[in-house]
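User: Hi! I have a protein structure encoded as tokens and I'd like to know what sequence might fold into it. I'm fairly new to this, so please keep things simple.
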């Protein structure tokens, strides 16, 4: 690797991240998806405005100490998924003045450099690529160190789990006490499951072949639309708010898993409506151009007539 991605973050957030003071990064900018799940060099921005000074958290260093870190790479950081504001307290119970910041991203792992490295980044650029060989080598070594630390932590947790039980507690006789005997009903049920398995496997292979053939027959414009659909998402915050109104409950009471499932089903329904609308538009007098509202309404009407998605439309 001859380069290393860099993200430049202002104080006091840079200090808070590299010192594990918080499990979330709060910002007023949309966090790029391409930067999530990968190691980034954490650069402390040289910008430190009066607006930044008003953010605070417990045991925060004084501004003069924070300024000494500016313009330097402090270590490496790996960010995770974005979360909603009402979910922050599940990960970061510390009191932080983040109410006016719109975007919140989980911090997965951090590894600090023993000595921060000076590195120049433009004031108005947040993403950068470091190509200085001496710095890149140290950052790669830091990634390897973080991987070793994580592996050691996993091994320690496995050892702690296995040491909770003594040999006497894990006697064969004790284990057998907790294993229920097979009944005729259980054996008959398992036989039916395995007997029906080959037809299911055969049907699955047929379905995969159909999908492969369909993908191969897509035009370039259809393939681009398919990729756009795969990348698109339904806004979880809006989904949660709509569910709260429909169910007459507080949006914060709806679990994250339920919101994700509902957003996924919503995406499928929207894709069906768009596909039906595009098909109708292609048969009209003006087949080209963006999908027009009249065909969206007609697609919904036809899906209702076919009694598809009766619970949604």
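Assistant: Happy to help. Inverse folding works backwards from shape to sequence: for each of the 313 positions I chose a residue that suits the local structure. Here it is:
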């Amino acid at each position: 690797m001859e380069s290393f991605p860099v993200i430049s973050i202002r104080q006091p957030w840079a200090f808070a991240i590299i010192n594990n003071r918080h499990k979330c990064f709060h910002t007023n900018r949309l966090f790029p998806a391409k930067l999530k799940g990968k190691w980034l060099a954490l650069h402390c921005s040289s910008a430190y405005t009066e607006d930044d000074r008003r953010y605070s958290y417990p045991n925060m260093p004084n501004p003069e100490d924070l300024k000494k870190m500016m313009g330097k790479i402090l270590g490496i950081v790996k960010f995770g998924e974005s979360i909603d504001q009402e979910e922050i307290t599940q990960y970061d119970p510390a009191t932080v003045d983040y109410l006016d910041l719109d975007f919140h991203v989980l911090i997965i792992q951090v590894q600090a450099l023993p000595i921060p490295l000076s590195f120049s980044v433009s004031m108005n650029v947040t993403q950068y690529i470091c190509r200085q060989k001496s710095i890149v080598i140290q950052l790669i070594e830091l990634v390897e160190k973080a991987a070793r630390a994580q592996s050691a932590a996993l091994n320690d947790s496995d050892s702690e789990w296995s040491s909770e039980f003594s040999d006497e507690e894990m006697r064969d006789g004790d284990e057998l006490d907790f294993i229920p005997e097979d009944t005729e009903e259980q054996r008959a049920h398992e036989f039916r499951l395995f007997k029906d398995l080959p037809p299911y496997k055969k049907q699955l292979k047929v379905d995969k072949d159909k999908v492969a053939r369909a993908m191969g027959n897509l035009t370039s414009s259809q393939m681009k639309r398919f990729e756009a659909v795969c990348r698109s998402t339904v806004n979880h915050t809006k989904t949660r708010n709509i569910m709260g109104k429909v169910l007459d409950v507080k949006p914060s009471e709806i679990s994250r898993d339920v919101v994700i499932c509902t957003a996924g089903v919503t995406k499928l329904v929207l894709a069906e409506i768009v596909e039906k609308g595009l098909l109708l538009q292609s048969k009209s007098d003006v087949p080209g151009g963006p999908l027009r509202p009249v065909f969206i309404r007609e697609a919904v009407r036809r899906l209702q007539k076919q009694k598809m998605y009766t619970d949604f439309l």
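A useful reference point when you look it over: Residues 285 and 295 are 12 Å apart (CA to CA). Feel free to ask if any position seems puzzling.
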